[in-house]
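Progress against Task 2.4 (sequence-to-structure conversion) is shown through the following example record, which the project officer requested during the mid-term review.
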Amino acid sequence: MGTLERIRSVSPYFLALFAILFVGFMVISDLDFGTLMRQGDNYQTAVLATINGDEILYKDFEEKVREQVEQKRAQMGENETEINEEQIRQQVWDQMINEILVKQEAEKIGLHVSNAELLDVMLENPPDYLQNAFKDSAGNFQRQFYLDVVTNPDGIYSRLPQSMSEQEKRDYINNWKKDLLRIQNEILKQKLYESLAAVVNTSNGFVSPNFAEQKFVDEKGAASANYILIDIKRIPDSIVAVSDQEIQTYYEKVKKFFEQKPKRKMKYAQFQLKASDKDSANAMKSIKKISDDLLSVSSTQAKDSMFTMRMRDFESAINDFKPMIEIDQKLAPYISTIPDSSVVGPITLPDATYFIRVDGKRSGENQVVRASHILINFDNNKDSAKAEAMKILARAKGNEDFATLARQYSKDQGSGMQGGDLGFFGKGKMVKPFEDAAFAATVGSIVGPIESQFGYHIIKVVDKNADELKYSQIKIKPAMSKATEKSIKRIAYEFKKELEKGTVNFDTLAKKYEIQAKETTLFEQGKPILGSNFLTAKAFEGKLNDIFDPMEIKNQGIIVAQITEVREAGYSTLEDLKQMITRRLQKAKKLDMVKAKAEEAFNKVKGLDSLTAATSIDTALKVNKVDKINNTGNMQAAGYDYVFTTNCFELPIGKISGPIRGELGYFIIQVTGRELPSPETNKTDFDTYVTELKKNPSRQPLYYQWYNKIKADAKIEDFRSKFYREY
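Structure tokens generated for the chain above:
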């Protein structure tokens, strides 16, 4: 008998009592937290947003943000300065919007979670994170203690350590009650997502039988064909004229599909908050001072003492034993070469200048590798990619500078700009073929080409290290002084005052101040501009030509902005769509222009048994081949054309068909083979496919289309700019 059944057999009223208990927790928590806040601090009752009338309170939002920040801080330890609180706020915001919208939609279609379902999860299968709180010193889950707490949380009061104060005990119990609520909400959310996904998938026809069967055949089927493409790329745009009247006529037909929300555009001047030349000179003096101090002593002990003394005067940090992979990768290559108990510096890097002292080294359990690589993409042609990789490999082994070759040829832009350097990495961090080659190679060797799903890699192993290092650092970078900051802000205010006079336009004034006048694209409400929702909110509060006071925006400096365009709700303008319309009309005309050539080619080959013989009739006819493609538009090396792939699955096998008008041009196609999986004969595979399709909405773009649609239609009032400056 399971735990749930045992409890039910003992108390027939348990289910009802449990439900009351949960409701009680919700009420108590709201009263204990909400009432106390409302009594003394109206700020805590302020509304941060409304979503279709449902409120998000500032206190609830901020509580979630604090939780996330603390979790990050616990994970990052000494690197907590790297926590991006603005990013966390945005993540919490998206999460809360999502929860409310999904819950609202669930309520519309009558979804709910029963107490029995809650009990089944809470008592029969408690989540791992909850079990962890009830493990003894040996790591064993104390199920009975857990059940006691779940069914009677107040009963744990007497079981708490006597060393705890009365207030600490009360806080512990209150926190546990809040945890229970949080768990309930998590279970509810999971149930809602699963149920809602199923409802969306079935009720909206996303996984209707016909849809599922067609999708199964499209994805799992395979077709092979030979074809001739009369490509419209052979016709340059310059000879395809499109008149203004044609563009206007097309615009009137399609504009209804391009509704737009209210939009704004701004010009802005950007005054960077950065250290002045004088500030930089002061930093250089500090660097020289530390260097001179360290050079003035010779013994290891004296250098150690001097380093410790200077740590008190400048930005510094003490780092406990870390494997090389966990050390700041800018510093790791330098630190790995410093002998134990040695001081090295200055080390000048783009972000700052460092002085490093290695306080200890020990052998770790796991080896890490530092490597550089050059990536050559397949680009749908593995043979040519491999040939190119072999040429570069030969040059690298011929003592050409690897970093220079990486900057010139690597398609991995991130590492390419760093001369191919990937820093240190451990096992499980790279794709398997790359990892195997890097760990197998000796330090200093260059190996390759190594094939992965990304392309061909040429790998240079720079270092291997299993050490764990304890080190201290002094970090010096030019710091903007208060005087410099005041000067920049003063100049920004002067710019704004001159602009308000109206005697000179924005661009001219920017030139006078030796800065660049920049302009935003048209943007909608709720979309951050320059990373700031606050700036967006100001733009929609103002009117045309309004000039805003200088405002400091994180990572942007001081911004002076002016509204230069106001668009109300309506359709995209002809000017907005002109380029797109022109391309579409040109494409249609190009297809008309090659039609005759396609018919001519078809007349030459229609009597052939095999399309491959076409070149014997006319050497200008190039015959291409696709092998085992599915019906997703992918023509392998040729690109994407759904018309082509659909015909590969519908045309009679062996018959030369055409000319067929596609997206890329006109096709003459001979299907050479086709494998179509039948849902009836492949029932097990088909059933598994449908199950996965239903339970995993991430495989369904349509699910996200549905969610994005309800979000777009939702009435969301965002008041974050009243509470957070970056918004």
